[in-house]
Write a sequence for this structure.
């Protein structure tokens, strides 16, 4: 059963201006391993974090530093959650998070589906 969905779109140039103007945003928004990525990949991950918050129905108990977007060997992105953010997901009965990312033509986008798999 789908619990929630979220989508977000980021203008990469605007994101770059924000990061240039306020460099501490990188530490506030991204984990250490994410901070090594290229700017357009960071913009897509920012969109993913925003989309996750939308899929969860709000940001209560959710912290940016507790959301990491990692990649499987195939390149498929997935969430790695920790702390109270992971607890919020469990409390809301979510058993699976589905994520897709894209970036093209100066835009980065993410779509998230939060799902609960009921036992038969």
């Amino acid at each position: 059963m789908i619990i929630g969905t979220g989508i977000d779109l980021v203008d990469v140039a605007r994101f770059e201006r924000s990061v240039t103007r306020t460099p501490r945003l990188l530490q506030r928004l991204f984990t250490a391993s994410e901070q090594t990525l290229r700017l357009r990949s960071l913009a897509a991950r920012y969109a993913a974090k925003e989309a996750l918050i939308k899929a969860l129905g709000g940001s209560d108990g959710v912290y940016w530093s507790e959301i990491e977007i990692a990649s499987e060997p195939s390149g498929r992105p997935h969430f790695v959650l920790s702390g109270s953010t992971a607890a919020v997901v469990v409390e809301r009965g979510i058993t699976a998070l589905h994520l897709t990312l894209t970036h093209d033509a100066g835009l980065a986008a993410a779509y998230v589906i939060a799902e609960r798999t009921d036992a038969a």
About this structure: Residues 19 and 25 are 6 Å apart (CA to CA). Residues 2-115 form a domain with the Ribosomal Protein L22; Chain A fold (CATH 3.90.470.20). The chain has a mean pLDDT of 95. The chain has one domain: 2-115.
